[in-house]
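Researcher: Here's my situation. A collaborator sent me these components and asked whether they could plausibly form a single complex. I don't have experimental data yet, so a predicted model of the whole assembly would be a useful starting point for our discussion.
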Amino acid sequence: MNLVLFGPPGSGKGTQAARLKERFALEHVSTGDLLRAAVVEGTGLGRKVQDILASGELVSDDVVLELIREAVAKTEANPSLRGWMLDGFPRTMGQAQALGGLLREQGGRIDAVVVLEVDRKAVIERLSARRTCVECRAVYNLTGNPPRQEGKCDRCGGNVIQRSDDEPATISNRLDVYEAQTRPILEYYESDRVPIHRVDGGRRVDEVTSAIEDALR
Ligand code: AP5
């Protein structure tokens, strides 16, 4: 099963993906995580994209398409996986069309798009309080789910920090970029008859997971 997890910044895509990947044996492919890892490792790619990520603008289509091509190929080569789950991709119409081309070449398809719907005020609150482990990428929230020891990851003991793009002005820009460049992709999938499941992402984490599982059953 191949899924696209869709929704504005802070709607809970990463939180839900961490649960769904085990449940459905899917490779979780987050372009944001891959780009941030490159920044932490200080690779050529990381140096190129660091300022773009911090501003909340989008990295060029060519760069993320290369990451997706590699991730999809890796999934195909792993027999224990039943498919992939894209998180944060596609984000522009160009990326959606390029993904369509890649899947046609490989005889693959998107089985479902899951859209997490959360209003703007709630995502601003969530992102302002989000903290992330630099080592294992576990996601916390100072309001609802803080680490037991301040600044330290419960899971691996790594440093828990605020992402550079979770500052108020950048959050607002990311939401505008989503409305202008990303949300219109849903019409493209609708016209292509890809099944779209809209889920109220404003509920408790467990309730959102159950609603997604029900939708995919
Ligand atoms: P990316 O990492 O993809 O960020 P995003 O889409 O903005 O999404 P987030 O990771 O911010 O939020 P999320 O929906 O995963 O929510 P989370 O689960 O963490 O992209 C970052 C940047 O990389 C982009 O701005 C761009 O520059 C670049 N980039 C990435 N992909 C690209 C692409 N394809 N093309 C071009 N550029 C690209 O949850 C958020 C918070 O809420 C957490 O604190 C969590 O604990 C909490 N929470 C989650 N669910 C709930 C709930 N149900 N109730 C209460 N709190 C909750």
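Model: Some features of this prediction you could bring to your collaborator: The beta strands are 3-6, 26-30, 83-87, 112-117, 130-133, 139-141, 160-161, 196-200. The first helix runs from residue 13 to 24.
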